[in-house]
Amino acid sequence: MASMSTRETVVMIHRLLIVLLLLSALPARANERAILVLGDSLSAAHGINHNAGWVALLAARLAKQKWDYRVVNASISGDTTGGGLARLPAALDRYHPVILIVELGGNDGLRGIPLAEIRSHLGQIVRLAKHRGIRVLLIGVRLPPNYGTVFTERFQALFHEVAQAEAIPLVPKLLAGVAENPQLMQPDGIHPTAAAQPRLLANVWPKLKPLLQPTPHVPLPPAAQHSLDPNRMR
Hints:
GO terms for molecular function: phosphatidylcholine lysophospholipase activity. Helices cover 44% and strands 11% of the residues.
């Protein structure tokens, strides 16, 4: 094979530079898709190492299973549905998630905020995300039994009501299989231990997985394909 002339080399380099410029102008690739977690202390790894929390474990599982998603944990200890609603627009603008996981309401219940107000806030959060084409997963939480059977049952029911009204999937109880076991709860009886976090993820995963989508194929633009034509590089 004859060696390439200086002119041919320059032409090839020029074409490769064009291809690189075209690729850099492509929309964000699939590996930049974000899952945003809007939660409170149960998702903020309260009282344990941040990397041991269920949200961090979710990110690790997605990476291990080759799902092209990054997880953004926007959870704040002590947050309420009202607080989450107030900060959600800025979070959506910043991270552009394709999936929103909502885990809020526990602090509302502990503070005795009216159930109708909690329900309204959750509904607004869901609709705000859906209006932008974002898939939403709602996570229900429970209140300690000392709040009374009637109130705790009505509180638990509001998550089902919101999920049904908005036609979104629901994890009924984030702490299912955990809250009943004192060894998996921190001394305050509200927050799960590090050892409980894999169980929390196990509760979330079956409802989250159907919302995940394979990496989409992003074809090269015609101009890039034209520049890479080996017959034109001779």
